[in-house]
Design goal:
The structure is a single chain. This protein is of the alpha/beta class and 330 residues long. The protein folds into two domains: 7-100 and 295-328, Rossmann fold; 104-286, Rossmann fold (3-Layer(aba) Sandwich). Helices cover 37% and strands 14% of the residues. It has 14 helices and twelve strands. It has helices at residues 16-23, 39-45, 62-67, 86-91, 104-119, 122-130, 159-172, 186-192, 199-205, 225-228, 248-256, 276-280, 295-313, 325-328; strands at 7-10, 27-30, 51-54, 73-76, 95-97, 151-155, 175-179, 194-196, 208-211, 236-239, 262-265, 284-286. It has a seven-stranded parallel beta sheet with strand order 8-7-6-9-10-11-12, with helices on both faces. A five-stranded parallel beta sheet has the order 2-1-3-4-5. Helix 5 crosses helix 7 (159-172). The radius of gyration is 22 Å and the shape is globular. It binds (2R)-2,3-dihydroxypropanoic acid.
Length: 330
């Protein structure tokens, strides 16, 4: 062991090639498992470590930072960073980074696919066929909603929201409405034919609502019973953002009462637990938080987290720091 090599923890199983790359720079302690370390184990494994490679699941908060005074960098392979208390990192002088950009198109592909599977009842139809229920052709058998030519409503118009919007407008001739805290520049709105609307109008007008808004205290249960009741009975809702943005219990009720037609969910409150009522419903497509899961993209996400970690601990400029100001402080 060389004294000058900083020690890091890799908190999740990742590509072996990325582990090897990190080993060329750091003393590496690797928890190479898909099961996350619990808070106590994470704290124990971080003693004496200058950096940690995390996914979107490890909670990095003020308590942990206080217990790990040697920590200087927390680098995540996820774009969503609601598991990282960035102000607490900044206060503790710890560089935090996420992995934006590299997963945009893959995640948008999936969001669009989930919306289509939901509208066209693909999960339900496959279960029907596998169960041996398909005996005859029927005029309305598994008939769903059209996607082409319908109105796409995007809640959260960041990179991924815009990539989904492009697919809808250019690929499927959809009309586009969106709601976001800040409006797109006029030229971008014009290029997409996008119309900014307030949240109630988005809910009322969208045929297919896709939720891509980051999770925070202010987006907790942004879509609850009151919001769902404003949607069309023929509408679908797709959530690829974070569990907690949608009130899953209220959604299960709306789906059971058919006050909306169907939902596609890749993220859940308290995942990997799923609200039990959702599991019993036929009009919901459920996937286990895999929107960014293509192999090339997962590799790019890991590479970006490694780039950030290496730069942060070797005097470089981390490409996607969330609080770059910590590096320029005296
Ligand atoms: C992300 O990158 O935020 C994905 O949701 C995986 O956590």
């Amino acid at each position: 062991m060389t004294a000058s090599r900083p020690a890091i923890l890799i908190a999740r199983k990742i590509f072996p090639e990325v582990v090897e790359r990190l080993r060329t720079v750091f003393e590496v302690d690797a928890h190479l498992s898909d099961e996350p370390l619990d808070a106590l184990a994470l704290r124990a494994r971080l003693q004496g470590k200058a950096g940690v490679f995390v996914a979107g699941t490890e909670p990095i908060n003020a308590g942990l930072l206080a217990a790990c005074p040697g920590l200087r960098a927390v680098c995540s392979m996820a774009v969503g960073y609601n598991n990282i208390d960035v102000p607490a990192c900044t206060a503790a002088g710890v560089l935090a980074s996420n992995a934006p950009g590299v997963l945009t198109e893959t995640t948008a592909d999936f969001g669009f696919a989930l919306m289509m599977a939901t509208a066209r009842r693909i999960g339900e139809a496959e279960r029907y066929l596998r169960a041996g229920h398909w005996k005859h052709w029927g005029f309305d058998m598994m008939a769903g909603a059209d996607v082409h030519g319908s109105t796409l409503g995007v809640l959260g118009m960041g990179r991924i929201g815009q990539a989904i919007a492009r697919r809808g407008v250019h690929g499927f001739g959809m009309s586009l409405i969106y709601h976001n805290r800040s409006r797109l520049p006029e030229a971008d709105e014009q290029a997409l034919g996008a119309r900014w609307v307030d949240l109630p109008s988005l809910l009322r007008e969208a045929d297919h609502l896709v939720i891509v808004v980051p999770y925070s205290a202010s987006s907790h249960h942004l879509i609850g019973a009151a919001e769902l009741s404003q949607m069309k009975p023929t509408a679908t809702l797709t959530n690829i953002a974070r569990g907690g943005v949608v009130d899953d219990a209220a959604l299960a009720q709306a789906l059971a009462r058919r006050t909306i037609a169907a939902a596609g969910l890749d993220v859940f409150e308290g995942e990997p637990a799923v609200h039990p009522d959702l599991l019993t419903l036929s009009n919901v497509v459920l996937t286990p938080h895999i929107a960014s899961a293509s192999l090339p993209t997962r590799r790019a996400m890991c590479d970006l987290a490694a780039d950030n970690l290496i730069a942060a601990l070797t005097g470089g400029v981390p490409p996607t720091a969330l609080n770059p100001e910590v590096l320029t402080r005296a």
